[in-house]
Design brief:
The protein is α/β, with parallel strands linked by helices. It contains 6 helices and 11 strands. The protein has 2 domains: 33-186, 3-Layer(bba) Sandwich (Glucose Oxidase, domain 1); 194-230, no CATH class.
């Protein structure tokens, strides 16, 4: 299911934890998976949430590629074509498969962030490393395993396959929501229900927060607020 620009805007109005909370309502079977389970570094925590369609790839950097340069160039071209393809906007999701050496060399820096932004990509989610933080394309979000100085022998290994980023399994064209907290996959079949669930949860929480922030807050007032919250549907 491809969402409209208005649908994506509604989802982007909420932070990723709220999206996760909403998914507990509309897709309770996904309560314990579909999001990163290990922390990722976000150098740009003030950027707004991004919502887009995953373009997956794997990389290595510890050793040079065994492929011919022409084959590597062809793979890179196919990857960029995928980034720019519909449905859009895209989010690059790259798994570093060097195992214990994951994050040895950075695929991402000033050049790649600028290229991807120009191709309509909103950001990257990777368990590999990134660099060039001060020269990074403005507004291009990043969640990464680490920040490192060199690109070493970094090269693409595959594109368009299922990947796992910090415990989050992502498939090509999965709908992804991300901000400085982390990322979560929104199942296509419930995507149009998520924003409404976010609104419901926000309204229910507002009753409790208002009570908790008021002078003279007590446990009794808390229980009353919880009861009132439960009546909001």
């Amino acid at each position: 299911m491809t969402l409209t620009a208005a649908d994506l805007k509604k989802l982007a109005a909420y932070d990723t934890p709220t999206i996760c909370n909403a998914l507990e309502l509309v897709a309770p079977e996904r309560r314990a998976y579909g999001f990163n389970r290990r922390p990722l570094v976000c150098p740009f925590p003030k950027l707004k949430p991004i919502v887009g369609y995953a373009r997956t790839a794997t990389i290595r950097s510890r050793e040079p590629s065994a492929s011919a340069k022409a084959d590597q160039r062809q793979l890179r071209a196919a990857y960029y074509m995928a980034i720019a393809a519909e449905p859009r906007p895209s989010i690059s999701v790259i798994q570093d498969i060097d195992g214990p050496d994951a994050g040895f060399g950075a695929f991402w820096g000033e050049v790649q962030s600028t290229i991807h932004k120009g191709l309509g990509c909103l950001g990257v989610v990777t368990d590999g490393c990134i660099r060039d933080i001060e020269m990074w394309a403005p507004g291009f979000q990043a969640l990464a395993g680490s920040i490192m100085p060199s690109h070493a022998h970094v090269h693409l290994v595959s594109i368009g396959e299922e990947v796992s980023i910090a415990g989050m399994v992502v498939r090509p064209n999965d709908l992804l929501h991300a901000d400085h907290h982390g990322a979560v996959v929104i199942p296509h079949q419930v995507a149009k229900k998520v924003a409404a669930a976010c609104d419901l949860l926000t309204r229910k929480e507002a009753v409790i927060l208002k009570a908790a922030r008021a002078k003279g807050f007590t446990a009794q007032k808390l229980m009353k607020a919880i009861a009132e919250s439960d009546e909001i549907h």
